[in-house]
Amino acid sequence: MNKLSTSALAKQRGISAKQLFETLANAGYINRYQEQWLLTPLGTKMGGEYAQHKKFGQFIAWPANLIIDLDHTAQTHLSATQIGERLKLNAKKVNQLLNELGWMEKGEHGWQLTQLGASVGGQQKQDKTSQNYFIVWHDSIIKNKRFKQSVTEFLGQDAELHATDKSISSFRQKFEAKHRTLDGHYVRTVGELLIDNWLYVNGIVHAYARQLPIEDDMVCDFYLPAGKVYLQYWSEAHGAQTESQRQQIRDVYHQHNFALIEVSEQEVHQLDEVLPKRLRRYGIRAY
Question: Where do the domains of the chain lie, and which CATH numbers do they carry?
Answer without folding.
Answer: 3-63 (1.10.10), 77-154 (no CATH), 170-280 (3.40.960.10)
